[in-house]
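TASK: fixed-backbone design
INPUT:
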């Protein structure tokens, strides 16, 4: 079940961060994201377990996906798809677009975003470190944008 993330989910989200990213957010950063009103932080929760999460924001017109990850043991089960779907539903009707950056080598994520209508909009050279890599900027125009 996908719900708005709460303080009880912070530690598990931070654990998944460490597993999924070379530059993981700390528990304090996750807590800050959850507490900011502009942010949309959702978690896929089953019992006591957080299986995945998405952290994004929207200023009313532009949505932005900051982080999305699924715990390794739950990947390829549709959780990423469900998180993206629920994130889009949580955006205000005034949202015109959603943007994100993804590592150029992360072909599964690029494929997932493409299946949602995200299109490649540019490259941020050397955006990522550990290892150093380009970031692909992807944007999805919303139905009213």
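OUTPUT:
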């Amino acid at each position: 079940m996908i719900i708005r993330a709460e303080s009880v989910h912070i530690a598990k989200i931070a654990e998944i961060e460490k597993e999924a990213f070379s530059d993981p957010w700390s528990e304090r950063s996750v807590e800050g994201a959850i507490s900011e009103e502009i942010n949309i932080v959702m978690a896929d929760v089953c019992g006591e377990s957080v299986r995945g999460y998405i952290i994004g924001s929207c200023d009313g017109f532009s949505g932005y996906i900051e982080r999305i990850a699924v715990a390794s043991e739950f990947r390829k089960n549709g959780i990423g798809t469900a998180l993206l779907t629920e994130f889009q539903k949580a955006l205000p009707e005034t949202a015109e677009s959603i943007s994100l950056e993804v590592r150029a080598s992360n072909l599964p994520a690029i494929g997932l975003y493409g299946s949602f209508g995200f299109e490649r909009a540019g490259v941020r050279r050397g955006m990522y470190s550990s290892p150093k890599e380009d970031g692909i900027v992807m944007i999805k125009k919303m139905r009213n944008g």
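COMMENT: Residues 79-90 form the longest helix (12 residues).
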